[in-house]
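Task 17 of the worksheet. Students: predict the tertiary structure of the chain below and write it out as structure tokens. Keep your answer in the requested format; marks are given for formatting as well as content.
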Amino acid sequence: MRDYTKLYIDGAWREPLDGTVVDLTDPATGEVSGRVALGGEADVDLAVAAAGRAFPAFSRTTRQERIDLLERVVDEYERRAEDMAQAVTAELGCPLPLSRAMHVAAGLIQFRAAAQVLKTFAFIEDRGTTYIRKEPIGVAALITPWNFPALQPAGKTASALAAGCTVVLKPAQLASYSAVVLAEILEAAGVPAGVFNLVTGRGSVIGNSLASHPDVALVSFTGSGEAALQVNAAAKSAKRVATELGGKSPQVIMPDADMDVAAGTALTWLTANAGQICSAPSRTLVPRERLEEFLSVLLLRIESIRIGDPRAEGTDMGPLISGEQWRTVQRYIQAGLDEGAHLVTGGLGKPDGLEKGHFVKPTVFSGVTNDMTIAQEEILGPVMSIITYDTVDEAVEMANDIRYGLAGYVTGTDVADAADVGSRLEAGYVIVNNAEFDWTAPLGGCKESGNGREWGPDGMQEYLETKVVLGRCRPTRDPIGQWQH
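Model answer:
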């Protein structure tokens, strides 16, 4: 039983000032797995004040000082990697090997990458008698989702610290365990008091309080579009708000595609994390004449998926995170049936023998048209909509006929043709032929999938303000050394 009933503010673990404590349940069993603190507005005020006091000194630390800090975080993260993996599985229900290999590994990469970025990042640019400085923006509020509870807090925190910002992290209420482990890692690594603060709690309370706080300079939010609207409304100012939101990503299977690769792409992203991935290729566009071939390969792979206890050896897919999410996925499956899509496999209810917990059947619909609910709305579950096309141009048009623009996938033997289709997709990033994912490339989307980017140099840039200085007046003495090329 985990007992995480304190908040981390100003370098100390504190009881909530005006909050409470709630139970969290294990997604695989539905049984209580621990308790977490729910902070309130007074706790937000305390955390923001601590971050504000710490900002002047931390923002003036040298490049090397911040590199050294991030490298200490990496060392401590490596030491606590198994603790982090166990926390992710406990709160998310992800199979433990995947928690280790994807969630924790990707989080660790963010701190390593941020240290590397700092080594070469140009904080100053000379243009004759003008020079341009990149300076830390101030106190950053980081609001993260439940589906990547190790990666998202790590990515935002690493970029913010590298830039010289101080932060207040608000994780998703359902994913508080891993955030507490992260705070313990940062504390053990020697992050100065007030530089990193953790306030767990409800988004409607903590998220809105952070967004509306006058001393918060930037809000970095990852989550649903509906919640993003609340964050933007709460901000009520010109403060910077960077968002990474939902998706309904297409996979365009080219006429010459290798169907083993195509099916592998679909299932890799659709069943990992039980489909709770905002960039999952949940709309699969297949040449009409190759539909049956694709389905035959896909069904063989689906039949081999082992669903069950995320801590048991050999489990491929665990449960959804909560009963609420399970019911949401069921509603979408019912919508697909009601709108006339053909159920190929899966469907309503839980897999046989898995009545406890929030398990769901991997579900595939064919005969889907692009205007159906299951083709247009984000589900965050292992539900695939297969749409047939007659020409590649038609496929691209349908792929882009949606309000989201987070990711896109293309599978084809002719790489040049596949790359051409990828260049035509309205998406923040495109994966061709199931290429290995790059956890340091700029992450973000277009249209209603958000604005701004995370990870690497682009991610750090979000936490920097640009200052232009005109005239030959560059400082002759720069004791911190931050602005050297």
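Marker's comment: The mean pLDDT is 94. Residues 265 and 434 are 5 Å apart (CA to CA).
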